[in-house]
Amino acid sequence: RLEEFLKKEVDLELSTLPDFEERVIDVSEVEQLMNSINAIAAPCAPVINPQAPNAATGTSLRVCWGLFSDDTVECYQLCYRPVSNERHSDEQAEHTLKVKETYCTITDLLPNTQYEFWVSALNASGVSPPSERAVYVTAPSPPTIKNKKIRSCENAALVCWESSDINPVDSYTVEL
């Protein structure tokens, strides 16, 4: 029976023509609502912390920052440069690092030198405004004792040293 049915030609002509209205549906409001739900706002500016005690060596600095808001952040952009009175020198060049955490240890710095730091937060929507700038200072390099100038007697000793630091050092501690 199936074989006989499939051999027949079937005419599928409709007896009445369908009456369809041509409707244009405005989905712009729904589209805006959906986009606002899925969109992530660009983050607010991070807050850079002042230099913490023991956060510096002669050649490195540990810089920390944070956010006041619950922004979604993918990474941070940490920028720094040496502080100098001279303009446009090679050592004045800005350096930029991409960091995942809210802290970073920067190495290969000059001893007893001031560095200016600022940070921005990044996510899929864009980059935040930069933080306020903070100045950090590396520790001075150890002085060199002038062995030929050491003098001593029964109750006293004279020890002389020199510093290779460009910037003045506040004080020295002498240990016996």
Number of strands: 12
CATH homology-level superfamily of one domain? Immunoglobulins
The SSE order reads HHEEEEEEEEEEEE
How many angstroms does the end-to-end distance come to?
A: 115 Å
Task: Catalogue the unreliable spans.
Answer: none
- What's the story with the biggest beta sheet? 5 strands, antiparallel
The total count of helices amounts to 2
Beta fraction: 25-35%
CATH class of one domain: Mainly Beta
The general outline is rod-shaped
Mean pLDDT comes to 85
Summing up helix and strand content along with how strands pair, one would put the structural category as: mainly beta
Q: C-alpha Rg, in Å?
A: 35 Å
Name of the CATH architecture of one domain: Sandwich
Predict the CATH topology of one domain: Immunoglobulin-like
| Helix fraction by DSSP (H/I, runs of at least 4) | under 10%
Give an account of the 3D structure.
The chain is mainly beta. It has a domain at 47-137: Immunoglobulins (Immunoglobulin-like), CATH 2.60.40.10. The chain has helices at residues 2-7, 28-38; strands at residues 47-48, 61-66, 75-82, 95-99, 103-106, 114-123, 126-127, 134-137, 144-145, 151-152, 157-158, 161-162. The strands form four sheets. Strands 3, 4, 6, 7 and 8 form a five-stranded antiparallel beta sheet that branches. It has a three-stranded antiparallel beta sheet with strand order 1-2-5, with no helix packed on it. A hairpin with a 2-residue loop joins strand 6 and strand 7 (126-127). The N and C termini lie far apart (115 Å).
